[in-house]
Amino acid sequence: xxxxxxxxxxxxxxxxxxxxxxxxxxxxxxxxxxxxxxxxxxxxxxxxxxxxxxxxxxxxxxxxxxxxxxxxxxxxxxxxxxxxxxxxxxxxxxxxxxxxxxxxxxxxxxxxxxxxxxxxxxxxxxxxxxxxxxxxxxxxxxxxxxxxxxxxxxxxxxxxxxxxxxxxxxxxxxxxxxxxxxxxxxxxxxxxxxxxxxxxxxxxxxxxxxxxxxxxxxxxxxxxxxxx
Length: 228
Hints:
Blueprint: E1 15-16, H1 25-52, H2 56-76, E2 82-85, E3 90-93, H3 100-227
Parallel strand pairs: 1-3
Antiparallel strand pairs: 2-3
Helix pairs in contact: 1-2, 1-3
């Protein structure tokens, strides 16, 4: 049988029978059927495990269990003259070489199992590839999100620092504006005071000039009166 079992060496199963020593063919047929049932159970277990688990290590473990079951079948029936080579998965029974019908049936069953494994293994391979691709995509997505989050945190920290600096400058400018407003108010008051003082000085000067002129006119009038 040629099959596509992942991680296992159960690629070929060959059964050859012979009955040259006169032993009962029915008994040996029962022994062979028992071995075939064990092998089919092992293959079914391996296929069930592969359909449920997609981990490569687990599939290798199931393949190892399959080889152990096949080896157990060989050890259980060693007293009946049957031998099993698990490295190449060849079942050889020297006493059944004269029964080609049973050999053909076993090969057909094995070929059917192999075809079933070949039909299911590509699907499992696609599922595993899709699973690995999804995991890789998720990992890359998490990495991108983490990098984006780190970049955003860096930008937030930078903007927070700039905001604090701008708030400090705003507070300084506000204080300067208040001081300038107060100084402007004081200067306005001082200007108004100086204007009033200037007006008063002008008024005083005007009055002084008027008085001086009046005194001059009085003096001149007195001198004219004395001459007369």
